[in-house]
What does this fold into?
Amino acid sequence: MKMMTLGPFDGNAWLLGRKIERTVAEWKEPARLAIVAMPSGTKHEEYLAAVEDATGVPVVGATTGGVSFTERGFSRSGVTCAFLGGANVEVACTAARELRSDHGKSIRAALSDMDEAVSSGSGRSGATSSILVLADAFACDGDDLVAALRQGVPPHTRVFGGTAGDGWTFEGARVFLGRKVLTDAAVLVRLTHRQRVNIDVVHGFRAAEGGRDFTITDIERNVLRTLDGQPAARVYEEELSRLGFRSSGEGLLQTMAKHALGAKTPFGESLKIRSPIAIRGDGAVVLTGGLARGQVVRVVNAATDAVLQAAKSLSTKVLGPLPAVAGSLVFDCAARFRMLGERYREEVRAFLSPNAASNPMFGMACYGQIAKFGGSVEGFYNTSAVMVAWGESDQGTAGG
It folds into this structure.
């Protein structure tokens, strides 16, 4: 499986199409899939049509949490593309619709459609399957989404991706399939290939110094109603103010999303972190994924150096064992982008291979990160960076 990237690109859809035509024509590999990351507010349909017309391959993608990047750098406003290809790669795409009403039913139907498409194709023995997921963050509980995927795919299948953002406005995200712009949906892509896929996840966040413990006293799935018996939003806001995290130029929800809630786990100091995505009028806080009644949570924080060091350790673990990196995909939390500010360019550089000057890389900021692989206890994350990579040879040498 090979990869080529384009962008970040600032220009109209027609110019993007012409640039893609030239780039793909010069590529030595047959393209099989286009992945597109775009900011909110862009004329998404026009750009999707341009990409599809220029490549003639399936197109998938999502709106970002504020930024996308390649090995060339990052952009808040540009369009970023990755092209996967190669003679030994097969692709099947579908959408799980009406996700909000029933995650399990929606995912099962989508996987069934994809299985039919794969079975009607040629199929190849000895090949490995991985699944890329891009979901509407406002339509899903990330934990329920991953649970549905776990039940629907073989245990060895690596699943990765993220939930779409909307530039930190928390009003509505979009995912893309072909020329269609979808809400209340998850786009699934099955990649059949011969390479071993390496995958891992890091965050670098910890419980805020001086923070207090709060017990979850009322929660339903991902809707957190009360902490210590009091409305969750009020308790949360008071704690953010006490810790000095509130600022006059930032909305409460945006501050909460930068300083999420970390739940204690049985694994030492490890935290299960969940970010708010909405505040309800009754004082409830909607999280990107679920927690449980009785769990103890604290506000989390991260120093910029800790976030950057986590990114370096991620690339070392995922890319380091590969003698030659054919491509890497990164799904980074939008909160990390907001925390780092102009130092985000340092994180983008840190995501590149420690063994070479550069490698093809596509990344985007999202509101939730997905990584299911051998040895992973969780499958859905917040404040994290997920990296997926593969080498030039048919089989990698390591990987989660």
